Each structure stands twice: as C-alpha cells, then as structure tokens.
Amino acid sequence: VTRIGIIGLVLSATAVVAGSPQSQEHTAMTTVRVRYMVKEIEPAIEFYTKFLGFQLKQQNKPYFAMVSHGNLELVLSTPFGPGGAAKPMPDGRTPEAGSGWNRIIINVDDLQAEVARFRKAHLHFRNDIVSGPGGSEILLEDPSGNPIELFQPSK
Amino acid sequence: MATVQVRYIVNDVDAAIAFYDRHLGFKTVMHPAPAFAMLSRGDLRLVLSAPNPAAGGGQAMPDGTQQTPGGWNRFAIEVDDLASTVERLRDAGVHFRNEIVTGVGGKQVIVNDPSGNPVELFQPILSEARLDSKP
User: Fold this and answer.
1) Share of chain A residues as helix, strand and coil, in percent rounded to the nearest 5
2) Contact A107 B5 (CB under 8 A)
3) Is A34–B102 a contact, with Cβ atoms under 8 angstroms apart?
4) Tell me, what's the ipTM?
5) Does B121 touch chain A (CB under 8 A)?
6) H/E/C letters for each residue in B29-80?
7) What is the largest CA-CA distance in chain A?
8) What is the DSSP letter of A70?
9) Contact indicator for B118, B111 with CB cutoff of 8 Å
10) Per-residue model confidence as pLDDT tens digits over A125-137
C-alpha cells in the first residue's frame, strides 16, 4: 500500500518546538474544509475513496457527500439539488463542476509510481510531471474534471 | 503547523497576499518570488501561484492552455455570525459573488479574491455541519 499523506511542505525543521504534552495538545489539528463541485456524487465518492485514500463521512445522494483525509474535509456538491452551493448567482451564473485550476495538493512519496498506478487505472491527467525548485507535481482529474495536484517535495 | 494544502492561481500575488491577510486573517509564510507565495490560516496552507508559461505551480499545460483564476472549487471558512462578517467585508469593499444563501447544513456566501477566486464563508445550522463537530 502506497502511503499518501496530505501534509505540509517539509518545513518541520523550523516548526518543531519541544514542549510539554499540554503545549502539544494546543497544536492539535483542526479541520480544514474544501468544497468541490462534481457532476455526479457516486463516481466522485468512489474516486476519492478508492484512489486517494479518503474516507466517506457523510452522504446525501445524489446531491452531497463529505469525504475526509487527515484533517482535510472535502465536500462534494452537485450544481443541482437543494444545497446552498447549487444555487445560481444573482447575476445568473451557475456553479459548474470541473472548472477552474484551484486545487487541493496531496503530497506523495513517489510521484512516478503514483502516476503509473493511476494511468494503469485509466485516470486522466491534465499534464505530465513538471519539476520546480520545491518539487515535482502533476494535475490529476477527478471524474468531473476537477484538478487534484499530486506533489512530491524535493528531498 | 499547516497540514492541508490548497493552491489558488492568482493574477497578482501581492494583491492576493494583502487581501487574504487583511480580510481573512491569513499570515504570510513565505513570498520568495513575485509569482509565488505561501500563506497559512490555522491548518490550511494556501499556496498562491501566478500563471506562468514556463515554470512553477502556475505553469501552462503541454497544449499551451494557461492556468487561470476562477472556477467554483474553494476552501471554506467557518464563521459564527455570517451576516455581521459579510457586513464588515462589504464595508471594506470586498466583492461577493452572491448574497447569503441557506442550504441544508448552513448558510453560506462566496467572496471573490482580487483575482476572482471564490472563498466560501459558512455558518453551520446543523451541528453536524460544524467543523470539528464530535459525532
């Protein structure tokens, strides 16, 4: 099983401060919520749980589900249905699934291996692996075409 | 330490830093290059990248497609009193995509950052919709 963690960039050398158990308790993780618009709930749940290690926390099919990974809570909403996220804007714009470039970043230990695994499963990428000063990354798409950045920090 | 990372594409990194700092309580972790910054708020690390034809997180796709701000995917910030938060931000000249809407789990509104990226502010109604609610 390949370990996929949603973790911060490796800045821990400066972030680690020795402290009593009490002070460590104060640094307990808090939940961060991100909402993705998806065309269909069921394939999205399957994608995030099967391929990216998320756990299903709540669902109200066919409009809404919440999946989590670590302290990331990813809300999956359809652009239709009773939810607040489905309501059109006052100027007539309607929420759209799969649009845009903003994304969650998932850190991986071995990007090439993950990409090979996902390609074998016929998942779709927007690009090929690109490398920068901080590490290597690629944009994976969920079944609705939403981007997920897989990132391998430089050693 | 921030443990969840989200990347937003912004046209002007400095304007984005000022916005997230002034209005939404983010701190700048690093801003090592004009086209890149990392901010944090609690356990959220917000990575800001400007569209860039050649390099970095804002790099264009192999077919030449540029990354752009916008879309509908967003992170959400929980607030205790959405109406007063909206009033404060409107007074400060912040742009909203919509008015407060009430859904199943709570009330929400979408703020636009200076590049037009959405940020959701929400106030839970159902206790299960609250962040860090205990089952």
Assistant:
1) 20, 30, 45
2) yes
3) no
4) 0.93
5) no
6) EEEEECCEEEEEECCEEEEEECCECCCCCCECCCCCCCCCCCCCCEEEEECC
7) 54
8) T
9) yes
10) 999 999 887 899 9
